[in-house]
Amino acid sequence: MYDCLIVGGGIAGLQAAIQLGRYNHNVMVLDAGDGRSAICQSYHNILGYPDGVSGPYLREIGRKQAAQYGIEFVIGKAENAEKMENGFEVQAESGDTYKTKTLLLATGVIDRIPPFPELMPTLGISVYICPDCDGHEVKDKSTIVMGSGNPGANMALTLNYFTDKLTYVNHENKEVDEKILAAMKDKGIKYVKGPIEKVLADGPDFSGVELANGEELTSERGFIAFGGNEVKSQLAQQLGVDLHKNKHVLVDPRTKMTNVENVWAAGDVAAHSEQTTIAMGDGMQASIWIHKTLLANKG
């Protein structure tokens, strides 16, 4: 029986694990290893890393730091969670089950990224997903937005704040509202109907796309905006946790606890701005209240 089981070994989960380890709690992190931080090659807006820092690096040093405090890590995907008399039981895809007094869901969000192998090494370096995180990186640079329908068009409009050298490629040829098309035209954003045949990149350096008709479009930077990202709140749903209409988990803003007693949520799966630094703060805040709860229950 663990004091706390953390599902998700990204930024929120690792920060919580480190703090709970410093409280001398018996904690396990169950991590599928497929979160956003596992693929982002560089974050640029984190205090202390003026030249950027990669998600895989943060995860690696985070695991080492947590391990110093006796935190246990299991690589695997959590499939089922249920309330038991004295806590919770979580079953992994492997069939292994784990019992815990408290549960922290740090399961995150999976972005809908088109399956072009050339994209992966570019993510966070020359191709981006979040305009709040990385809009600054395309400042005054020619940029191609690879997207679908309205989400891609709206991304292009958002990025117009940073650069006027924009092309939106509607890869899936989904319909774009007339009002949004007019706004793009007014801003001088070039609109191209896809599909994209190939992403042009040399390792981490994105240089454009080749369309199915053979035309090549070149640019210095890229952005991805397909919409339909998956919020990993299935375990929360199984436990009866209240969700926002967009499937993000609703939490108490002070404690990060959900409506289900002894179940917390932190990071991108919770309903707030999806930012690395906020995920870190969420994990810390949740861990403090998990500690308080464990102490109270012990007494």
UniProtKB/TrEMBL annotation:
Gene3D superfamilies linked: FAD/NAD(P)-binding domain
Domain FAD/NAD(P)-binding: 2-283
UniProt-listed SUPFAM superfamilies: FAD/NAD(P)-binding domain
Keyword Flavoprotein: yes
InterPro entries tied to this protein: FAD/NAD-bd_sf, FAD/NAD-binding_dom, Ferredoxin-NADP_redctase_2
Record bears the keyword Transmembrane helix: no
Cofactor: FAD
Keywords: Flavoprotein, Oxidoreductase
GO MF entry, a single one: oxidoreductase activity
Subunit note: Homodimer.
Protein's recorded name: Thioredoxin reductase
